[in-house]
Each structure stands twice: as C-alpha cells, then as structure tokens.
Amino acid sequence: METSPEVIAGLIQKVLEELAAPTPAGKAEGANGLYPTVNDAVEAGLVAQKKLIAMSLERRKDIIASIRNSVLNHNEEMSAMAIEETHLGRYEDKVRENILCATKTPGVEDIEPRALSGDHGLMLLEYAPVGLIGSLTPITNPTGTLINNSIGMISAGNAIVFNAHPSARRTSTTMLQIIHQAIVDAGGPVGLVSSVANPTLDTAKEVIEHPKINMLVATGGRPIVNIVLRSGKKAVGAGAGNPPALVDETAIIRKAAQCIVSGASINNGIFCTCEKEVIVVEEVADSLIKNMQETGRVYLLNPVEVEKVTKLVVTPERKINGKYIGKNVQVILHDIGVEVGEECRLAIFDAPKDHPLVWLEQMMPVLPIVRVKDFNEGVELAVKVEQGNRHTAIMHSTHVEHMTTFARAVQTTIFIKNGPSFAGIGLGGEGHTSFTIAGPTGEGLTSARTFTRQRRCTLVESFRII
Ligand code: NAD
Fold this sequence. Notes:
- By secondary structure, the protein is α/β, with parallel strands linked by helices.
- The protein folds into 2 domains: 5-22 and 29-239 and 445-455, Aldehyde Dehydrogenase, Chain A, domain 1, CATH 3.40.605; 244-429, 3-Layer(aba) Sandwich (Aldehyde Dehydrogenase, Chain A, domain 2), CATH 3.40.309.10.
- It has 16 helices and 18 strands.
- The N and C termini lie far apart (61 Å).
- The mean pLDDT is 95.
- The chain binds nicotinamide-adenine-dinucleotide.
- Residues 136-141, 163-166, 201, 204-205, 218-221, 223-224, 227, 238-241, 272, 361, 435-437 line the site of nicotinamide-adenine-dinucleotide (NAD).
C-alpha cells in the first residue's frame, strides 16, 4: 500500500468519521468506551462485566469473533495511524502484527474446564473471571497489545480498563473504540473495554491504585512492571528483553543469516522479542556476516561508521537515544552521512563484548555481532547479556546437546531454534500469539487462562459410568 502523508491522512479521517457516527448504543457518555475519569470507566466496567458473565458462552464467542473481524477490517487505517502518531516501526509490519493478534490470540476455548473422575467421585475445575482488569499498554504495540489483551481477557469473562502510553494515546484510544463498537455490534455490553479519553501517567496511577480493579497487567519496561508488582494486587508483568541470537559452528549459516536479518529488522526492531545482538563462534563469523550481506537487506558498518552510529544512538550516560528508536535504517545511516537504498533493513557491525548496544535494549535496526572463541564462551556471554529478563533467546545450530545446554542456561520464556525471533510469537511458528509475554511473573505467553482464577467443585459420590 502507498503510505504517503495524504493517503495516511485519508485513512485516518475515514476511521474517525466512522467512529463519530451514531451507534446502536446511542450517543450517551461512554457509548464509545471512553470516559471522562478513571472512576467512570471503572464503574462502567463493573456493570459490563456482570452483564458479560450473565450471557451464554456462545454469545461470548460471538463477541470475540466480532472483535477479530473488526480489527481485520480496520487494519490498514490503524496501522497507518500507529506509524503517524508514534513514528515507530514499519507500516507493513504493523499490518502483520494486527493480523497475528486478531487471528492467533486464543479465545473462549482456552478456558475449557477440566474434570477428573475416580473412586471418590467427580472433581470439576473451572477458570473463573477475575472481574475488572487494569491494563497498561506500551507505545511499541499501541494496537497489538490492546487487541491481544481484549480478546484474551474478555474470553475469560473479564472487563478491562485500559491506560495506554500517553504518546500512543490517539492510536490506542481509537483502537479501543473500534473494539468497543465490535462488542456492542455483537450484542455485548457497553463499557466492557474502557479507558479515560486522555490517558496519562496520572491516570495510569489511578488505575493501579483503584480499589475496584482486581488485577493489573503491565506490558512495558522494567520500572512499570516493578510498580504493578508493588501494588498489592494480583499482577502480571510483561517486561523488557534483550534477546541474544547464538550461532555455533554447526549451524546452517545461510539459513541462520536470513532468519537473523528478518527477525532483527521486523518493525525496525521494536518487538521486545527481536534479536538485539548476535553472538557467533569465531570459526563461522565471517561466513555469517557474508551471508547476511548476501540477503541484500543489510549494510555492514566499517569501524569509523560504528563509532559514529554509536555516538548517535547511545547518549553519554550510556542510554538509548529515543530519537532513533523504531526508525528506518535509512534515517539512522543518513544522520552519519551514509545513504542506502530502500531494500536495506538493517545495519550490522562487528562489536566488542562491552559495546553498549550489546547490553542495552536498542529497539532499532542496528545489530551488533560479537565473536566468541567457542560455544561455551558464547553461552556464558549470551546468558549475561540476557540479564535475567527471562524473555527471549534464539539459537542457530544443528547440535542438539548445544541447543539444550543453552536453553537450560538462559532460562528464557521463549527459546527459538533455527528460526527468526518472531516464530516464537506464532508468526511463522507453531503456537498462539501474545503481545503480553510475562517473563518476570512467569505466566509466559499470556492467554485467556492467565486472566482467570481457578475454582474447584468436588462431588463426593460415585459419578462414574464405568
Ligand atoms: P514503558 O514502560 O515506558 O510504558 C509501558 C506502559 O506503562 C505505558 O502505558 C506507560 O504509560 C506506563 N507507565 C510507564 N511508566 C509509568 C509510571 N511511572 N507510572 C505509571 N505508568 C507508567 O514502555 P514502552 O516504552 O511503552 O514500551 C517498550 C518497552 O516495553 C520495551 O522495554 C519492551 O521490551 C517492552 N515490551 C514488552 C512486551 C512483553 O510482552 N514482554 C511487549 C511489548 C513491549
């Protein structure tokens, strides 16, 4: 699709006009899911959640189907709006992200009850809703996390008060209105997803502290995860990552190179799962770099350019310069005086172990490659640079023992063997997707079942038919 400013403006105008039209719910305050205060959103959510659990599961499935359809129908506009507002990532990858969330987030089937029968009767385990959930969503996925959380949390019978990142306010609240409208169109309750019209850090604090919100879900950096964990409420923390890709001497180098280039450059590196540094056994390092260049999508920085890029994207305080997060590689290279064609997606460079971009979560298409003498040194370094985030690690190898050794050592929530990082979130890999990957609190790739509490019913009679 053409993504000129005029085309983008037209798409955005279209969706805004559609949302401004009268709805079956009328034009009452909150009829679009947006409320003046957090308290209003909470009160609406409480009423809506009671209505939802009074409905049949079939109706709940209809609501989920309606959300999935509506997201797909509005995908182009919302992807364009996300780029226009946040200036992060690539349009075509936002489109892929939204399709992934709409189609591969598990629904009501994820909370199927379990039954156990034996000598002492019957035990039934059901996954009950927690009630009202407060969800804080990141700037990097202003639509994806909202879609993914809405489908999962509603499938489990909950209502949600969202508080989006203030710098993605317009995109996330528009996405919320679209989801809200899809719920209402399918006969679901007004206010099942809600937010203040103008989410800020202050309203996030109100959400975190609101006594009627039973559970908090934070998708973002380490500080916000720590804040919700200190809240005294049940909390799910989906935090930052710094995924290493380890390549040993047994890897199929051509395939490894292609996978790493695709994985590290998707959405300009802003997925928390993207390869953020490569650690390669010296013996195959030159071959890996050559094969990466042969993809035609990579620019290899020379030592002088490495110095310039490092000064550009890392501040003197050794922090990432926010100006370059999520930008196209052309923008970053232009600012050091290098011009590359449109097909280029990633800048790579030979890096020493202590290079800041090996240790910082850079979220941009600049990828350091560190050479190590052997597999064992590679594992040791990869574990260190992952920094206990328990997030994602990638390995390219045909040595089964090596892969097992690294997986055991690094302890990440997602471990990808011989594929691009995004295979681990279900894009071209098996399994469901999640855009709230809860490493710190251990729920893993969250889904409807994460947002439940378990209840057991025991019947102490023989209920067996055999
Ligand atoms: P962020 O931590 O700045 O913000 C995340 C959310 O928390 C936003 O809604 C923000 O408004 C809120 N928030 C942040 N600080 C707050 C405070 N002091 N008080 C109240 N609310 C606060 O993260 P971001 O920049 O939006 O997103 C990028 C980060 O998120 C990266 O580190 C990335 O790895 C991580 N991320 C993780 C996952 C995952 O599933 N684990 C998914 C996407 C992004």
